[in-house]
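During the no-cost extension, the postdoctoral fellow (Dr. R.K.) reprocessed legacy sequence entries with the updated structure-token encoder. One reprocessed record is reproduced below for audit purposes.
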Amino acid sequence: MRQIAERLDINKASLYYHFTGKEDIVRSLLVGRGDEARELAGWVRDQPRSPELARSTVLRWLDSFSMEKLRGIRFMNANPLLVRAIASDVGVDVGSELEALLPLIVPSDAGPEQIVLTRMAFMSIGTAIAAAVDVPAVTDEQAIAAARSAAIALIERASHVDT
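Re-encoded structure tokens follow.
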């Protein structure tokens, strides 16, 4: 908790005021992202089906990432065993929430490649953060821009795949 407080540039007492420990931080992050994934699903259900829906959905998901959420992703990437344990404990699986969106945003006759490309588009933010770890002087904004560019390319490719 001391290291987390130092990285956030706050004192440890302030961190303990909001969270009892690392587990509580991870729980909060997972629940928050799970809620956001469910909200996105609700938004998708209210949209007319169109060829643009996959792109709009993926970009809406990516555009929901703030700098604070990126720090949360880094924290969770640094603590994978803790994340898995808590995710099963609280019953939150953001990946499953996003997976449930696929039937709503890809055509019913979509082939395996189209489905994989769409899944990859959703995963682009985590991939960009992991890929940027050892890149000198890369900013969070640049990592997000790279994730967005990759997601757009993946969705564009998915829309042109033969089923």
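Residues 22-45 form the longest helix (24 residues). The radius of gyration is 17 Å. The remaining legacy entries will be reprocessed before the final report is submitted.
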